[in-house]
Amino acid sequence: MAGVEVRVEGLSKSFGRANIWSDVTLTLPPGEVSVLLGPSGTGKSVFLKTLIGLLKPERGSIVIHDTDLVRCSESRLYELRKLFGVLFQDGALFGSMNLYDNIAFPLREHTRKSESEIRDIVEEKMAMVGLTGDEDKLPGEISGGMRKRAGLARALVLEPEIILFDEPDSGLDPVRTAYLNQLIIDLNAQTDATFLIVTHDINTAQTVPDNIGMLYRKHLAMFGPREVLLTSEEPVVAQFLNGRREGPIGMSEEKDTAQAAREMAEAGELEGLPPLKPQLQPSTGVGERQAVARRRERVLQMLHTLPPAAQQAIRDSYAADQVAVDPPTGPIAAPQPLPRKRSAGPLVRDEPTEVIGGYDPGYDDPTSRDRDRS
């Protein structure tokens, strides 16, 4: 099992007249862990369902292995879906089946493997998620954390190249969430699959991913190396990462600009971003993540295009490992500010996309700044 690149270009999705998001463009680097953040109701779960072909977008493309999932035949889409493993919020287990049969279900449904082969695979995946000995238990007899792990084992049995996590931390206490985060990093080290996690958990966003994206105002405000968002001074980022009331985000996604300005003025000087935490490393004995070396090479190539604070955070984190971080184009340079969107409504095609902190990668490839997104 090895990761695969997922390239999304100009993706737009609506339900009737209700626009969910528009012109989403990003690339999930192969084998890396990416996180998608955003206020409630911004369509993060809709994005996951669109990514695997359960929902059809109005515009755009999703390219995997040189095939566009949006325009391919139904038979080809069926085959490509086998590249995905999905962990749903509640585990989505069959209540009448024990854990063994739940995890074996995809193998029996989509392969012609013998029962002895299935048993070997199921036992291996259950061991990977720490469920050895629980094969005969029913979903109703176990905790929420165990159901999550069983759902994850089931997502792994077909050896997927891409694994999607839809709020894996929902319903879990902070301790179980920490264990699950470590499990995700260890699984990435063992499988080298491409991971995409939708979450609201700030600790997960700070410590797990290689890349972070944020959906806001019906578009992807940014997507890139984790250091970009975690060092951004943009008000919406600071508000979200601090979990405070004051700022652009309101109960119904966003506030009126004047209201947000009044609140910020009344609040005075607010605390900035939380301290930048180190990224989780694989557990002892698991081995190194193959994505680490690939990420370093990729980030060093684009380092000069990132905001100064992100550049410095990358330099500091790599310094401990004695990794050279001087890009061929020279020292840190402040990025040029880009035009900002004037309204809070749906995007229109001839209007510049709002970006966070003046940084608008497209979204992990520097050359994509010149790419036509129409």
TrEMBL record:
ATP-binding among keywords: yes
Cited Gene3D superfamilies: P-loop containing nucleotide triphosphate hydrolases
Keywords: ATP-binding, Nucleotide-binding, Transport
A GO term, aspect molecular function: ATP binding
Record domain ABC transporter: where: 6-242
InterPro entries listed in its UniProt record: AAA+_ATPase (IPR003593), ABC_transporter-like_ATP-bd (IPR003439), ABC_transporter-like_CS (IPR017871), P-loop_NTPase (IPR027417)
Record region (Disordered): 272-291, 317-374
Keyword Transport included in the entry's annotation: yes
Residues making up the signal peptide according to the UniProt record: none
Bias-annotated ranges (Pro residues): 328-338
Name under which the protein is recorded: ABC transporter ATP-binding protein MceG
Organism: Pseudonocardia zijingensis
